């Protein structure tokens, strides 16, 4: 009975009850422990939250009120901005001819020049509480964090921070840092400064950064000329520049524009009448068929085309300006090469070029169409035209159509052997300056040797064996006479000194060019450039001064500060006024004498001093000379040197074609004779000043401090008669003496 199922069941029931009673107390204890844990977690959580919140708040307050994190003044100064090139038109007015920029085309506009309706359109669309918050719109910001996205919560100030920093990561950390920077920015700068920076920074499609370039790109106007409708169009681009591009996606932009105008009306930034007018305004974009450019836009386009001349690319002058500015920023202001390039393509520079637009265009037209050119069509040429105080008025570095920007400029960057055009720089002018020779000095036309080298004239001979005057030797371009001067009279060292340190031919190589052949006949290692030769020869037309060539008058930075100024370009007197005057008159006989190598290339109606140049191998031809208005150097040859088969001097033909064209409408003008030299009659037999006993005379020019003595007697052969001499005087008087050699003498110089 005791072990019956019923009894067993009862016992089990009793056991279960007993178990329940035993477990009741432990369960209550566990609940209390759980509750305590929860309370502790809550307290710790609250404390942690408070600590973190306090830390964050402290960071926000301390950062916002701390030192400037982003300096808008520095940002503006360092902002990529479009640079401008200006030139004077025929009326002397500075006009825009070209814009230079890299990836970011930006023209910074000050706050007061941005119309109110443009500011209002952006504020209405992007940040309607802009004027009331302190950099962060907390309602929008909290909404962004709750939604866990980065869209729609940024104020204009925050967008500016993002544009400046370039940080577009969609993270809480980036957003937090952006908030701190925005608060700091508004603590240190006012709303106008922030809005100005924003409107000049925002990307607005079509390569446009800022509202000014956008206004010009889409409407062909300056931003201050835009109406409400047009301002709303540009403001509407901001959110999605490609999708809301009014040219590529006009329907999308139209919807966004209407929304912008609605917001402007709701926020009472425009009246209902202004709203209706804006909604119904017929928008005309620069790509539309009915677009009519403004007068200012037409003038800018015309001037830009003038600067480009006949080429579809920017002119060689623009190329030269860019190279010149980059070089000067480095040499004058200590920029690195990269910094200088960044400045010209993104520094907002205002470069006031020295170009003469008419002369540049005329010269480029001649070169593009190869007017006056001889020889085969692949012959090349280069020319530099300057005034007498260093201003480069025109430069062309290629014959034929220009095929790119910043291509090889043979005028400034391609040295070639100068041949005989070097002689006035290395022999004649130094010797006159040192009082070693005069106009009528007689020197022996025969070979001289130096270090195994022996002089030959252009005809291959070693000279006539007769005495010739300095004037005659220069006009005929004899080689023996300058060699004799360099080797026997002034010396190699002094000749090289004049070439490098006075005439500033920087391409000379001391190790190889400091020798007789390079200094006497121009067979230099690398040669020299048209630009350097032009600057050197200018000394013969300006009284003996060297002026460093310049392509621009001055450069301003984006804030209007003058960085480099050439308007008071100081000349360096490298030879005396007297030497310069004598040299100019000597060089004029190259074009006026029947035997002068440049007699075919005198500029019509104007005095022309000049010197021809031909290398030994006939691979290079030069013509360097000037008129009362301009001085120029022309090189002619082939990129891969080869024999020039053309008769005469094709460089002279190009020079005459260009100079006849650019002088066509210029008033008559003579060189001014300065007080350094005097004109005297000399005896053609002795080279001394003519006296009453001299039967054959001519005129020459002499330094005031080196006038020859008077002739005191003559030697005549048995075949000579006094009557013959008297007749000779009447025919030669006031003409340059050719030589003391027989009349049958060969020229022996350049052809």
Beta content: 5-15%
What is the fold named in CATH at topology level of the domain at 312-413 and 555-671? Beta-lactamase
The CATH level-2 architecture of the domain at 312-413 and 555-671 is identified as 3-Layer(aba) Sandwich
Write the CATH homologous superfamily of the domain at 312-413 and 555-671. Answer: DD-peptidase/beta-lactamase superfamily
Q: Helix/strand-derived class?
A: alpha+beta
User: Which stretches of 5+ consecutive residues score pLDDT under 50?
Assistant: 8-23, 307-312, 717-749
Strand order of the largest sheet: 2-1-3-11-12
Structural description of this entry:
- The protein contains 26 helices and 18 strands.
- It starts with a helix and ends in a 19-residue tail after the last helix.
- It has 751 residues and is α+β, with helices and mostly antiparallel strands.
- Among the domains are: 75-83 and 104-280, Orthogonal Bundle (Penicillin binding protein transpeptidase fold), CATH 1.10.3810; 312-413 and 555-671, DD-peptidase/beta-lactamase superfamily (Beta-lactamase, 3-Layer(aba) Sandwich); 677-732, no CATH class.
- The protein has a five-stranded mixed β-sheet with strand order 2-1-3-11-12. A five-stranded antiparallel β-sheet has the order 5-4-16-15-14, with helices on both faces. The chain has a two-stranded antiparallel sheet with strand order 6-9.
- Helix content is 44%, strand content 11%.
Quick take:
The protein is of the alpha+beta class and 751 residues long. Helix content is 44%, strand content 11%.
């Amino acid at each position: 009975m005791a072990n019956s199922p019923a009894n067993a069941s009862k016992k089990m029931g009793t056991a279960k009850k007993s178990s329940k009673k035993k477990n009741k107390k432990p369960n209550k204890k566990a609940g209390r422990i759980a509750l305590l844990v929860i309370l502790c977690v809550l307290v710790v959580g609250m404390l942690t939250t408070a600590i973190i919140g306090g830390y964050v708040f402290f960071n926000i307050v301390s950062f916002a009120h701390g030192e400037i994190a982003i300096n808008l003044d520095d940002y503006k100064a360092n902002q990529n901005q479009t640079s401008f090139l200006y030139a004077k038109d025929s009326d002397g007015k500075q006009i825009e001819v070209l814009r230079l920029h890299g990836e970011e085309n930006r023209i910074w506009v000050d706050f007061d020049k941005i119309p109110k309706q443009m500011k209002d359109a952006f504020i209405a669309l992007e940040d309607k509480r802009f004027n009331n918050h302190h950099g962060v719109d907390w309602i929008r910001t909290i909404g962004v964090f709750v939604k866990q996205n980065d869209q729609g919560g940024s104020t204009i100030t925050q967008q500016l921070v993002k544009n400046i920093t370039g940080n577009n990561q969609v993270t809480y950390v980036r957003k937090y840092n952006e908030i701190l920077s925005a608060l700091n920015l508004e603590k240190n700068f006012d709303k106008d400064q922030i809005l100005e920076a924003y409107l000049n920074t925002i990307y607005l499609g079509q390569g446009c950064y800022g509202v000014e370039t956008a206004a010009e790109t889409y409407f062909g106007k300056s931003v201050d000329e835009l109406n409400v409708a047009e301002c709303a169009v540009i403001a509407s681009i901001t959110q999605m520049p490609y999708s809301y591009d009014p040219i590529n996606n006009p329907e999308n932009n139209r919807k966004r524009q209407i929304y912008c105008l609605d917001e402007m009306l709701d926020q009472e930034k425009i009246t209902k009448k202004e709203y209706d007018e804006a909604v119904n305004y017929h928008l005309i974009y620069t790509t539309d068929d009915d677009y009519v450019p403004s007068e200012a836009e037409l003038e800018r386009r015309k001037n830009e085309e003038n600067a480009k001349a006949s080429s579809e690319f920017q002119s060689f002058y623009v190329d030269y300006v860019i190279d010149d500015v980059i070089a000067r920023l480095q040499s004058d202001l200590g920029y690195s090469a990269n910094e200088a390039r960044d400045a010209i393509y993104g520094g907002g520079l205002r470069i006031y070029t020295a170009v003469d637009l008419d002369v540049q265009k005329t010269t480029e037209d001649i070169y593009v169409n190869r007017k006056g050119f001889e020889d085969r069509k692949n012959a090349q040429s280069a020319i530099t035209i300057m005034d007498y105080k260093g201003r480069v008025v025109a430069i062309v570095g290629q014959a034929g159509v220009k095929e790119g920007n910043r291509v090889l400029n043979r005028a400034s960057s391609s040295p070639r052997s100068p041949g005989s055009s070097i002689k006035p720089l290395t022999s004649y002018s130094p010797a006159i300056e040192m009082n070693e020779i005069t106009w009528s000095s007689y020197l022996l036309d025969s070979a001289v040797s130096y270090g195994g080298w022996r002089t030959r004239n252009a005809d291959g001979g070693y000279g006539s064996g007769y005495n010739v005057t300095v004037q005659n030797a220069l006009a005929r371009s004899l080689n023996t006479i300058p060699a004799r001067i360099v080797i026997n009279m002034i010396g190699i060292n002094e000749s090289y000194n004049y070439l490098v340190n006075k005439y500033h031919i920087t391409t000379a190589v001391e190790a190889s060019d400091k020798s007789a052949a390079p200094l006497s006949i121009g067979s230099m290692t690398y040669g020299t450039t048209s630009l350097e030769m032009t600057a050197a020869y200018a000394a013969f037309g300006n009284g003996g001064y060297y002026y460093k060539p310049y392509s621009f008058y001055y450069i301003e930075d984006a804030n209007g500060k003058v960085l480099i100024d050439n308007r008071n370009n100081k000349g360096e007197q490298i030879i005396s006024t007297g030497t310069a005057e004598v040299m100019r008159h000597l060089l004029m006989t190259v074009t006026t004498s029947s035997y002068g190598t440049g007699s075919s290339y005198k500029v019509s109606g104007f005095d022309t001093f000049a010197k021809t140049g031909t290398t030994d191998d006939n691979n290079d031809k030069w013509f360097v000379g000037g008129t009362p208005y301009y001085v120029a150097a022309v090189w002619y040859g082939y990129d891969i040197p080869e024999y020039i088969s053309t008769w005469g001097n094709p460089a002279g033909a190009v020079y005459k074609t260009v100079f006849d064209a650019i002088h066509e409408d210029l008033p008559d003008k003579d060189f001014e004779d300065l007080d350094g030299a005097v004109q005297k009659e000399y005896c053609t037999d002795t080279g001394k000043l003519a006296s009453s006993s001299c039967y054959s005379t001519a005129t020459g020019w002499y330094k005031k401090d080196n006038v020859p003595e008077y002739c005191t007697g003559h030697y005549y052969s048995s075949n000579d008669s006094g009557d013959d001499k008297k007749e000779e005087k009447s025919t030669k008087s006031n003409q340059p003496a050719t030589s003391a050699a027989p009349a049958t003498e060969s020229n022996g110089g350049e052809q």
